[in-house]
Predict the 3D structure of the following.
Amino acid sequence: MNDKTGRYLPVWSGLALAALIIASCRPPTNAPETTAAPGSPQKIHVAVVGGMTHTGLWQALSHRFEEATGHTIEMVATGPKQVIDDAVRQGGIDLVTIHSSDTIVNLAADGYLENLQPWLRNDLVIVGPPTDPAGIRGLTDAGEAIRRIRSSNSRFLVHASLGAQGVLKDVMNRTGVELSEEQTSILLVDRHREVLKRAAAMNAYTLVGRIPFLSGRMENQGLVLMVQGDPALRRPYLVGVVPVTRSTPLRHHAATQLQQFLTSEETQTFIATFGIGQLDDRPIFFPINPASKSS
């Protein structure tokens, strides 16, 4: 996919991400043995992407973990991924969770995080003008929606840095239908609001996060929800712990316990029902554990 100048823009490489995640999961060979007792209370310093705190999911999970272990969790930073990235690089963080992205993989590659693991997903939705020139409103199949947008020669705006470009490319690869260069525009500005504003001005469809769109945290600019509910539109979050060399053995041990709690079957089952009725009749986030129930 390229921009209007003909330059090819980078698209997230699933193979590269998988390789880095696998590499980061290997325990460091020189890691010192921890002497922390499982019940030794610690204060775990965390940096968490804003969507989890805005919806209350992180607060609910923190309470459950603290009740179960006796540890406490201190929120050091929350917000967009750049805020998280800055906080981790400044130091004093024990555990991080944000979207699967260049940002968190680079933190691992630079030695700030280790043992990256997927633990839940959010989802994107396709929104568009009320006139719905492609006739896709109400669909739950993103691939069919792309087919109709392509055949109707409708405009589509995709954001290059919010994960939307990778999701769109995966859908197109799966269906074998690709939007033409003439009908596709790519936006590099890293702001959700700008995506919606630009799409509305172009009378175009676009992909945005379901949580900020339905919660009203961003103005819809007159655009309407068109397509949701396709698992192909989901994006994973990763959780990683800071190496013991940048923390302490006791806090590193506690942060690892928190990571294990987040990926546990019990937590995955909790995620599968959390927030039903808050935005719509579906959970706000989706578990990744196959053993848990998912909508």
